[in-house]
Amino acid sequence: MEPLSWIDIILRLLAQLTPVWIALVATFTISITYKRRLGLYGKLFDSTIGMVGFALVMFWVYAAIFGAFDLIITHNALEQVSGMKNKPPGTPLSGAKEGEYAYYLLGGDNLARDVFSRMIKGSWVVVQIAPLATVFAFMVGITLGLPAGYYGGKLDTLLSFLANLILAFPVILLFYLLVTPEIVDTGIPSYMGAVMFIFPIAFVGILLNSRYHTQPAIRTPLLIGVLGVMFWLYLSLISESGTKLDVIPRWLDGFDIPGGILVVFVSVVFVNSPTVFRIVRGLAMDIKTRDYVAAAQTRGEGPWYIMLWEILPNARGPLIVDFCLRVGYTTILLGTLGFFGLGLPPESPDWGSTINEGRKLLSIYLHPALPPALALLSLVLGLNLLADGLREESLRD
Amino acid sequence: MAKWDYDGPILEIDKLSISFFTRLREIPAVMDFSANVMPGEALGLVGESGCGKSTVALGVMQDLGVNGQIVGGTIKFKGRDISELTPEELRDVRGNEIAMIYQEPMASLNPAMRIGKQLMEVPMIHEGIDAKVAYQRALEVVTDVKLPDPERILNSFPHQLSGGQQQRIVIAMALMSKPSLLILDEPTTALDVTVEAAVVDLVKDLGKKYGTSMLFISHNLGLVLETCDRICVMYSGEAVERGSIDDVFNQMQHPYTQALFRSIPLPGADKNSRPLVAIPGNFPLPHERPPGCNFGPRCDYFVEGVCDTGNVMMEQISGDDRHVSRCRRIKEIDWHAPIAAAIRQEKAEIGEVVLKMKDLKKYYEVAASALFGGGSKKVVKANETLSFEARESETLAIVGESGCGKSTFAKVLMGLETATDGEILLDGNSIGDIPIEARDTATVSSVQMVFQNPFDTLNPSMTVGRQIIRALEIFKVGANESERRERMLVLLDMVKLPREFADRMPRQLSGGQKQRVGIARAFAGGARIVVADEPVSALDVSVQAAVTDLLMEIQRTEKTTLLFISHDLSIVRYLSDRVMVMYLGHVVEIGTTDQVFSPPYHPYTEALLSAVPIADTKIEKKRIVLEGEIPSAMNPPSGCPFQTRCGWKDQVPDGLCDREVPPMVTLAEGHQVKCHLSLEILHRMEPVIKIAAE
Known about the structure:
By secondary structure, chain A is mostly helical. Chain A has 17 helices and two strands.
């Protein structure tokens, strides 16, 4: 068989991504039709920049989801096919069997795996970890930043000092330390995780209690239910047989997170939360001077109700924008971690690791490194444009 | 560049229409607006917020932003159409020929530049003169705006000056290039009353001295009366009446102007013979204006078929000088008919003493150096020996300028701070040193507060109903959710808001409606003492009357004790039973409303009364302009707190005022004054406000 021409390759790529296009068109049609009823999300569709950003982001989200269901990919991301090592894009598969896709659309890498399929599979890793890690960083930042800004004084000085300490520490060095086997063996990353993952529980617990403490009939069952489930998730998350933290029996342990990913997760949350902390602290200091906060104080509300129900909802604008930007930073951070070979297993298809592998033969074979690099670029660009669009639209009326 | 010489009117605005374009629709902000300003003349532009008065000013400056556009009519400045100027010519005109003074002085000064440099910039850019000449000019102008020690001022940064001084600098900056037209956009709204009076005096004098024409934008009719020659009243984007001050104030020919005058309290008038009449309804949104006359739906003289068709045009009033009005029924309305007598509400009987303050003191300790905490501590005496009583169903007004300690007092009463010394007795129980967390629900719910800024008083991300229900939950009212919801709807009825508002978000409400929700929330737990911190000062004139009436009506039915904090003496006179005047943490005068508003006065009360702008041409006021600024509470003057600004100080022998804080002197039953002046001198004082003989 003849190798494909570039036009053929592009046409076949577009055809392969059909499910993504359908999902994108559906999302946009529905959203634009009902945009007046959708609040800030709807306003996004008035800004070209915002729409472009949203489209880029959703492209990768859909690609990741469909890829995870093996819809888009042409080959198994880990499977090697003999004779396909470092082959250029569009090379036909040597000895393709019936039912197999007959081409490596974006060529093969130095272990003869399909670059296109690895890129799609890699997006799943990124789309899963980056937003989740950012959510955790926000939980930690908010739970500490609100009291720091609201109370001020010594508490603020102490917490801000700690935040500055973390921010002043070289990030890459920190990562290297956290993934060093000797340090992992001491259990420090697991303990850090155990501490950090407790913040969402504290956050939700305080949130519900401050809101419903006047009505014990609703409050008590609600808290028991929600906190019970969260606590079980928490224990399953941190407990892992064979490590230092093996706290609950196997039959109760819902799921296991591979140790490498947990470490990556912990480090990303750890370095992101001080910045979130500072933003939330600043916003809280501003909003606490408003009259509605004074009104809440004069009717005897507790401090946590004021922080979580009076201050936090009114700080949401800047926080949403920052969230989008921060998912972008985290994506790059994950790429960097992968590039240094930290955390994730070596055969992982995530973009950072793929770029690192492709780098070694960059002067001879460009094609294995380029697609994941472009993918990373477009996703982060999309997130930044989305943040810009949201910021612009939230200011207009 | 040379200034244009021109003999005709400085500014001619002819049938001007300005629209803003949003993503949904075109919003007409100004329609068919005409006005002329002659050389040396001051034109006042009056209207409620959103009526388009600032848009006119921005249109004259050609500074409408990306969304705004002039869609019809012309603006001629000295005979030249301003919209045809090139950007270069426009730059020459702005700041040189037309200068503008904004509301917030700090926002118009560059905080990183010395005052002198900012002033010198103006003539250096526009006239190309060198720095030395410019410095001389700056010195001269700063002297003209009556700032002490001009050289030191020129060498300081904006944050080192007080608000009043900053506004004087902004005025000085506007005068640096001797403009032909000065646009003042609410120049004194951010200032205290006594400072406002001084600034207004200054603007008037300077206008005469420099021969500058002025466009004075304000919502305060009294201020316009004091500063302007002619007035233009705007409503919902249109000029509704225009004429000389005399004609418009005494022979008004438009129902809106009349309604506006009837909704403001005049300190000279009796509250029973001249009740406040609120304008019914709400200001129409720009895209929901009615057909025909914009004021039609709220007008008492509305006639179907006459007022609601076509465009209503300006009509000349015969006999008056350039007096025009936009009303179809000018000739049919009897303009001199007396105000329909309001149903006289019987005032609830004043009951037992509910709240008693005994020698309340509140001091703050401030570390001299914030960074290291060490060093000597300074004590700020925010409240000094406050003593008074408040009874059931009584309105006690607390009057004073910013920094006088009235907010601190409110905080102590609410329990947000605890008293340094002295006692607060609520029904005989001391609550002065119990912080709010330690108070029981009954105490907390019976002392509540209504806040000043309607745009800040409600949480923007919670529905109106939810916020009231939350207050009910906290005050343990109602057994379950549905009972509380029912109670919330009753509260909405009480403040005369439609029940549908329960599910609205605060941003969908107007300022007056938000303030009503704030009142409903304060009364959620059956409050017995309500501290109202300037509850209407941020509202439009026509809404103020309605909210004030609402507060008084609720007071009648609930027998509430109202502590009304305000700096607006007109409204204080209208609604309060007793008045307490505060200055720098001290109570300087306390008594019934009649006692405080008539001589003998405390010298500070006298100055406050004279500073209030009154929108009535028949009233003669004694002018007392206070020199200097309010001293800082960190560093109060020795002896009497008011001695640095007092005009009567030389009447007290051997410098007693410098040495000793005066004792409280009882002048009559319940009337006390903190002053060293002898009784004889006090009784010789003349009333500040006099109604001229007709």
